Target: ABC transporter ATP-binding protein
Amino acid sequence: MALLEISNLVVEFSTSSGPFRAVDGISLTVDTRQVLAIVGESGSGKSVAMMAVMGLLPFNAKVTADKMLFEGRNILALTPAQRREIVGKDIAMIFQEPVASLNPCFTVGFQIEEVLRVHMGMNRRQRRARAVELLQLVGIAEPERRLSAFPHQMSGGQCQRVMIAIGVACNPKLLIADEPTTALDVTIQKQILDLLMRLQQEHGMALIMITHNMGVVAETADRVIVQYKGRKMEEADVLSLFESPRSNYTKALLSALPDNATGDRLPTIASYLGPDGTFTEAV
Ligand SMILES: Nc1ncnc2c1ncn2[C@@H]1O[C@H](COP(=O)(O)OP(=O)(O)OP(=O)(O)O)[C@@H](O)[C@H]1O
Model:
């Protein structure tokens, strides 16, 4: 049984200019301990699809799916209370903007301990001890002292480490990382990726890595889904994707990497469109 199984996920927003379909029939499965990358340009519906899994979309979103199963349970049929037992505990998500994702009004210690209070029912002493352990785990020096820091007193990289600590606090079975390194300096990006991969391996978590960066895909993923305008263009294991991409859109993404440049100018996506103005899907 797959850990997460989604079939034909559709997310439609009602907007002032009519319905807008951000996710258009995405299917995917994630197995225990697997790292799945979802790659695609900005606006391709990567985040919206995963927010639908978390139940975090606003009221103007309509979510439908033939299947959305976590460990065999239909997530869409759960009551909000049942869903909250899973989300944040068994499935956790970290976001692109670590500083903005933390609450500026509370210390990082409070924010880590809150998750432990809600999901693990720990008492004050246990929470404190676990919070120190978590900060150590994510590589924050002087953890006891840093627990009383507010997010604005920490760097972006440290805030992302705190977000990761909150994400893994309850030993989730699945962690969804939404562009976890995009807002960070290049040197810090590498450290955060290494940290995520170490935690994934040590804790045996499955990881969904949302990214637009093919380098991140190559370094982290077992399987890859390439998404464009809310649709899945291609799904493959990571080696096949880089060695023999089947969809024109994947070919376009790969040829747009500076390392693959053959001329003075990088090719544009448009030069890979088929005669009907669309990309071939290879799923
Ligand atoms: N609340 C909303 N109402 C209307 N449209 C929305 C809403 N939230 C997201 N969208 C639209 O859904 C589409 C998909 O957005 P999404 O954030 O999933 O893209 P993405 O692939 O994750 O890109 P990025 O990497 O920039 O986050 C976008 O066109 C976005 O404008």
